[in-house]
Amino acid sequence: MAFTTMSYSIPTVKDFDARRIAVLGLGVSGRACVDALVTKTRAVVGVWDSQPEAVATYSADSRISYAFSDSAAQKMLDSLVTWQPDVVVISPGFPETGIEWTTLRERNIEIWSEIELAWRLRACDEAGVFAPWLCVTGTNGKTTTVSMLASILQHSHFKGVAVGNIGTPAVQEVSRTDANAPRAFAVELSSFQLKATHSMAPAAALCLNIDDDHLEWHGTRQAYWQAKASIYERTQLACVYPVGDSQVQSMVDEADVQEGARAIGVSLGIPALGQIGLVEDVAVDRAFGAHYRREATELFELGDLKGLGLEQLPAHLVKDALAAAALARSIGVDAEQVRAGLAAYRLGAHRIETVACVDGVEWIDDSKATNAHAAKASLCGRPEKSVVWIVGGLAKGARFEQLVSEVESVLGAVIVIGRDQEPWRSALSSLNVPVHYVDTDATNPMELAVEAAQRHITSQTRSVLLAPASASMDQFTSYAHRGQAFSQAVSHKIAQVQEGS
């Protein structure tokens, strides 16, 4: 299959004529929304942000109808409401429980995410064909799966790219009308984005898993679950789900999809009809292809994932690869292209990344494990009492009793960082291994954590693992900053030990 036309346009652009659209929050996605609106449409655009420097850029821009900044949320909202917008494109930084959402709902003002705006500004070719969206959400594994999928799409005729929560704003890419515009999109979606996305109809959708997370943003577990489940709404071709996960399967069962959309299972076992799974070390497809009802298609071997640089592949990474393959196959990507894309994929920084190995002990940076589900994936399957575990940060309303009970057998010691340590004191209170709490006011928490970890290494220890199960912004600027601090502290500690030996 090949795309023969190179002329693209945005057929819905006239829908924006004279509509008053406010952009609330001028982060990366907010700025991308403003740019798309003023360059692609004839909407009347206003901008609001609590930071004066963010708004200053637009104050002298003749294309912007109104620009306002105030650090007081109520004053900013009063200004916005007085402007009488038809739509507010809201930053994911504003929680559903906050005054911004509450006020806009009370005034019956439409609330869009950047993803909703992107969907409404999609470009199509001369035949009216839009580039398919392959959408991924979940508590853990989104970025890895989307990155794998993007690699597959890059090795296919689609030349697709990753957008959304992974970094590049979707609206920036999907509204492109140049000859080199991507012809498929791997879209990572957070629950924040999904909450204000109302009309998206993905070609295929996937929720990898769900566990308590971001409860402080959504307010309730049910609200979080509903946001994640909405990814399956209006799906055109395939609702991909992990076999055996009853919560996600119920999302698929309850979704209002388009006629002809199929439920496609992903399994680490031998796949049934309508599934993709493993036969020994070979990934096979019994869901797609001209003859899928009669025969399976070999997609890749686990050995093709050697580029990940791991001696032993964790089950969750294998499942991520299978899920990425399923999404790609739903739009007709060949098996050979799936194999090539996965073989070329490399893990990103701060995701199960070994930063040092000294005296048989690996120091592993999984700072991207920002919730309990991700931390569990890093820990499970490791030998008994083999891990010194560094945890802690912003708990985001989560509790960790269940996590600790599920990974207790592999723990040799626990080091707790972060300012919000109460949930960990509760969860670790009955743990029968050493637990060290780093001073919440420490200016160098990671250095102190690494020093403590070094002291708790025993003959059984195979790894010191940073898998915090928490967000980073209490003591660091991001999970990447936290991972970098860990790597630097490990390097410093190793140098000290070597100098003293």
Strand order of the largest sheet: 9-10-8-11-12-13-14-15-16
Distance between the termini: 63 Å
Unreliable runs: none
Q: Strand-residue fraction?
A: 15-25%
Output the radius of gyration.
24 Å
By helix and strand content, what is the structural category? alpha/beta
Mean pLDDT: 93
Q: Helical residue percent?
A: 25-40%
Give an overview of the whole structure.
There is one protein chain. With 501 residues, the protein is an alpha/beta fold. The chain has helices at 28-40, 52-59, 73-82, 99-106, 114-120, 142-154, 170-174, 191-195, 215-218, 221-229, 246-254, 315-330, 335-344, 372-379, 401-407, 422-428, 445-455, 479-500, and strands at 8-9, 20-24, 44-49, 64-69, 87-90, 110-112, 124-125, 133-137, 161-164, 185-188, 204-207, 238-242, 262-266, 275-279, 282-285, 297-301, 353-358, 361-365, 387-391, 411-416, 435-437, 463-466. Helix 6 (142-154) packs across helix 12. The longest helix has 22 residues, at 479-500. The N and C termini lie far apart (63 Å). The mean pLDDT is 93.
